[in-house]
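seq/struct pair 1
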Amino acid sequence: MEYLMALAADPAAWIALAALVAMELVLGIDNLIFIAILSNRLPEADRAQARRIGIGAALILRLALLSTVAYIVKLTEPVFTLFDQPLSWRDMILIAGGLFLVWKATREIHHRVDPEAGPDALNPAIAAAGVAVVVGQILVLDLVFSIDSIVTAVGMTEHLPIMVIAVVAAVLMMLLAANPLSIFIEANPTIVMLALGFLLLIGTTLIADGFGAHVPKGYIYAAMAFSAFVEGLNMAARRRRNNAAQTE
């Protein structure tokens, strides 16, 4: 209790908490986009449930990983060397997650471009199986993003209570933003393709990071923000043309 009181009275702890919450929110954007796109493939009645399960699982995973933070730190220690590149468990998880994200985004883009390509495992006609498949895929990416999130948290502060508060705050904000984001993406088809492009970029970045080619996340998010800004201008232009057409 004294430790918590001392921590609460330390201005540096509050600064670390604010920085960590902001970082967790930025890292959570990737996860949230993935959850929104996948859940929108389900029948409308099942979407909110899939999102709640996916985000709830992200919270449980991150808190569980925080309870084993000493072990998580060891995940960054090299396990073996491949082509003169040392790989740790974290690297292998990032590579596997990146490959999965690239594969999934590519499939989703193919589905959007050619929706009649053939039978799909997420066909809304089999709602029960679709929910199970969506939740399973969300859980896989939750694990990847959670490990990356916890490793980042450990690098920013040594105080476990700060990490827990930051993770809980970030996931609760994700929960609040999930439904509005999903509705916005569903209402704007071009945003879906842009978001899938983001996922391809993020997946490629995870693979590169796993192989030791670290790309500063600031560059990635700056590119994503610029693309979103340009798409926002396109949406505003389309809205003005539609309004002008309706008034004629």
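seq/struct pair 2
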Amino acid sequence: MSFMKDRTREDIGSRKESALAGKAGQRRNTAVLILSLMAVFLAASAIRYLLRPGAAAKDSALLKAVIQIDGKEVCSLDLDKNTEYRAETKDGHYNVIVVEDHSVLVREADCSNQICVRTGRIRNPGEVIACLPHRMIVYLSEGD
């Protein structure tokens, strides 16, 4: 009988140790989870910072706004010079393209949907403003 009592005491003791070890493991897992989430947050913040508007355009003096109508280049504007250009189609429709503050926008257009105007400013290579009714696109390209 005393053997059973000793055995029961050993089982209880080992259960307590096991429970304590389990709690320590849970704390460790929680700490690892928190640190992992912090690392992901910091990485996402760094990526967002690097991809912010203007980050890719390190030297806007080398960027050009290329204007195409019907797939043909009609004009190329340097981003380092504030200027305005009126692009006209064969039908007499127009878009007013403005370069200011090292960015490009379509200030005015006589198209029906005004998507080109609502697109706003573009600053980075690869960004595009499109006016489908006039078959016109404006995109930024690294100049020569």
